[in-house]
Amino acid sequence: MKPLAELLRHLSRPGITELALASGRPPMVRGASGYEPVDPGALSTDELVKALQAMVGMARASTVSETPVQWTVNATGLGSITIAAVRRGELMNVRLTRAAEGAAQPAAPAAAPAQAAAPAQAAAPAAPTRTPYAGAPAVSAQAPTRTPAVSAPVEAAARAAQPGAVGAAARGVPGGPAASPQAGAAAAYGGAASHAGVPAHASVPAHASAAAPSASSANPPARVIPISRGTSAPGRDLTVLLEQARSMLASDLHLVAGRPPLFRIAGELLPQDTPLSPETVERLLLPIIPERLRHVLEKDGSVDFALDSEDTGRFRVNVGRQRTGLKGTFRVIAREIPTLESLGLPPDIAKATHHHQGLIVLTGPSGHGKTSTLAALVDIINRETTHHVLTVEDPVEYVHPRKRALISQREVGTSTRTFASALKGSLREDPDVIVVGELRDTETVRMALAASETGHLLISTMNTPSAAKTIDRLIDLFPPADQQQVRLSLSSGLRLVVSQRLMPSTDGKSLVAAAEVLTGSMALGNLIRDNKTYQIPSLQQRGKSLGIIRFEDSLADLARSGKATLETVKGFAENPDEIEAMVTGKRPGAAPTVAPPASAQEGARMLSKVGSLLGKKGA
């Protein structure tokens, strides 16, 4: 395949208005005399994908499927170009149509010779409707789809793309079947024909031309939520933004009225594209809000729900109102259930899942991976046991597949009213393990402690900064008259507390985890029962044999292994000097030895002489 920039230059030739690229066919252009090849080499699908990525970006190129998609781009020296793409199986077709001179919109491609006999009044068949998300409006062929414009010059992107190797198949030899105008027309319209049920490698009969949607008829249905031309711009389609967030390994996507889309990558919010208008944000967010939550948004100003799409995956979503309009926050949920190893957490944490009853608490600030760790522990139980695991979440984030265990996942708001009511009813459902998304209030904690004392293993999360403060928080949630009973329950039932933090890695491209691990033991139980939780740090200093890991030790290990820089881990430590001493081996507070100045040395010699004279007089 010739370089993409060289192929695009053919569109600047007089009379050439279209460049057709199809799998297994040579590149062809359409002029007044029909289609003609511009390169004898047949194109591969990989070459087409790379060319499309160079023109519209990786995120948009990934949206191509059996449903045709279309973009409008501005190419340097060529003006407005319409790019239409469709893919069926291993075959892919891309059409680039240049607008006619003086026309306000890109010109519709002229009919190929094989299609000239088709009745002009034949209407295109209705394309199947697609609803990307629950509550989103379906897009059909009858309603013209306005496509977002791509502002980056195509030719500049094409120069950056590496030309692919020439296809091994030699079917595009000049004079062969593929080089004929009729075969060129079939290649150019292979996407439309294939979509209508005609194989892309077959010639298109005259009577089948009505099945080929063109720019002058109904536009092909897009697989993204449509946006009006007045507010369209690169990356304004929700599906594209969500796919971009996942491909860029972002943890969150923020859509805020008056701001550009923001991706949280390695802990930092990075803006992409141009600011979104309040109307655009509403158009993107309102269709995905479940019907049952519309009145909640009007009443409370904020709603939480899960968004699941076959194309983009699963997301935890919060939509709320703020000063400039609506705001949407999308937490990216991994497609695969993570493991403790992939999260960088100590493998000994898995030992706590072997208990038949008790309490396991995962703590840390919001957004520091507690839900992922919770899913990893549930997956261990799902793989290794035949227990009945009952989860109560708001909303359900990781969906656990069927393995050895029985997993019952309940969502607050749809399957149950509150965490407390779900816990109360769960005791009659014969569970072995109960997973609570978060211990938020006194009633939920009370029910959780009761469940952990009645023969169940209960796993949950809390937003507390350390293991010791987690225990204090659990106790302080209750009135003073009940706190002694809570201490007794925790002293005998607490199995594990894990407090974790995520911080940027050394290369700044990902996050690494530091974890504090406090295991249940008789020594810890005595401190809790006797109200001496202030001595827990002292227990952690000498409790390595009990499986206890201090947060400072975990930070120092990250710095010594090179996973994070020393400056980064010092920023997360309560005592940065201690971390530096552990990593570098220098004693904290030790002052370097420096020779005194010459004047000080002279003064010392004079004092020595005076002392010797006084000693002689005394003798």
TrEMBL record:
<dbReference type="InterPro" id="IPR001482">
    <property type="entry name" value="T2SS/T4SS_dom"/>
</dbReference>
<dbReference type="InterPro" id="IPR006321">
    <property type="entry name" value="PilT/PilU"/>
</dbReference>
<feature type="domain" description="Bacterial type II secretion system protein E">
    <location>
        <begin position="427"/>
        <end position="441"/>
    </location>
</feature>
<feature type="compositionally biased region" description="Low complexity">
    <location>
        <begin position="121"/>
        <end position="138"/>
    </location>
</feature>
<comment type="similarity">
    <text>Belongs to the GSP E family.</text>
</comment>
<dbReference type="GO" id="GO:0016887">
    <property type="term" value="F:ATP hydrolysis activity"/>
</dbReference>
<feature type="compositionally biased region" description="Low complexity">
    <location>
        <begin position="211"/>
        <end position="222"/>
    </location>
</feature>
<feature type="region of interest" description="Disordered">
    <location>
        <begin position="121"/>
        <end position="155"/>
    </location>
</feature>
<protein>
    <submittedName>
        <fullName>PilT/PilU family type 4a pilus ATPase</fullName>
    </submittedName>
</protein>
<dbReference type="GO" id="GO:0005524">
    <property type="term" value="F:ATP binding"/>
</dbReference>
<dbReference type="Pfam" id="PF00437">
    <property type="entry name" value="T2SSE"/>
</dbReference>
<dbReference type="InterPro" id="IPR027417">
    <property type="entry name" value="P-loop_NTPase"/>
</dbReference>
<dbReference type="InterPro" id="IPR050921">
    <property type="entry name" value="T4SS_GSP_E_ATPase"/>
</dbReference>
<feature type="region of interest" description="Disordered">
    <location>
        <begin position="211"/>
        <end position="230"/>
    </location>
</feature>
